[in-house]
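Service request form, structural biology core

Requester: graduate student, group of Dr. S.
Request type: structure prediction, single chain
Budget code: on file
Notes: please return the result as structure tokens.

Sequence provided:
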Amino acid sequence: MSKKLADGSQRSTFVRHGKLRRSKSWSNALRILLTTAIVVVLSGVATVSYAVWGLTKDIQTVDLGNSGDAVGAGSQSIDGALTILLAGTDSRAGQTINDGEEGELNDVNLLLHVSADHKNATVISFPRDLMVPIPGCPGPNGEPDYYSAMSEQQLNTAISYGGLPCVAATISSLTGMEIPYAGLISFDGVIGVSNALGGVEVCLAQPIVDPHADLDLPAGMNNLQGLEALQFLRTRHGVGDGGDTSRISNQQVFMSALLRKLKSADTLSDPVKVYGLAKAGVENMTLSKNMASVQFMQAIAGTVKDIDLDRINFVQYPSFSHPYEEGRLTPDYVNGQALMDIVMSGQPFEVSAVGEGVATEGEDPAADPATDPTTDPAADPSVAPVPEEGATPPAATDGPVKLPDGITGQQASKETCSAGRTVF
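Core staff response, request fulfilled:
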């Protein structure tokens, strides 16, 4: 179906109403591999990836069809801001795990942005269930607008309409941010990655029991490794309100803990761990052509190696329940614009609120957030608030900008706990 635009052209308004495949354990497990790819980059040891480059005979690359330039020889860092999209594919093609499922969805979508002064880094998670416009996407040989634009589709279908370039174009259209670099990650390296790291210490404010994910964890500190790490990352029924946004906030607890471990001397000084992490990641990635060089990885390491943990934030792109697609989400464009304005301005910021799946360590998850100084914007007068509409980021201040309460996430340096199931 199409409609006539003001200029007389036709625009597709097709919306697929068929039931999409539910995200299963292995597709949800993609999050651990994506997380590791991002935090290895942020740890400043990205050059180690190329220590195992020779072990991968056929690295796959793709042309995004944009202006992202390759990094020249001798570059010690990326010039200006750095933006990389990391998408996770649930395709079984060529994978050792093959349960008979066919097709391909980009069930995981993470956008890493490092500010132009290389002092701030943000990782934005986009819910798979977001219903968004998909722009015209290039064809298999780079043909422009080979796939027609669509007014509303579920975000995780973008890859089926033009591969990784279409995912990048869709996220770029949603955020207004140019995406010159992108990577696509499969799930074959999930077990290898978690085992190479030796587990991640994660705090649980209460037990998490989820028969759907075959997960039964006690309250307190848990060292999550291998299959148990996958179960924790894929649990939806065991955290928050049981939805995808709760699962993302729960995964941010894991991401932050993982990054703190990777930035620690115990990890960075252990060549076996770093080698294993890099090997598991590199062997299971498709990269945009402008990323596939030793020089690029060296420049990434130089760009991020000195970023402090308190200047790294994990945030979730804000959303509402969709008005007529049950179980789907629609973007919160006002808060979304506020988020992107702050991120692109390069100013340091502080997240005002955690997601449904997170409790600050030592807190009662059921406590009233209005009395919680970590979620009350007025509690810290040194933090500058964002104007309500978020159209323009505020002028630089002595302290970090405070994001609107409608944007959830957490600072990498802050130890938080998974809240478990809080809404039934």
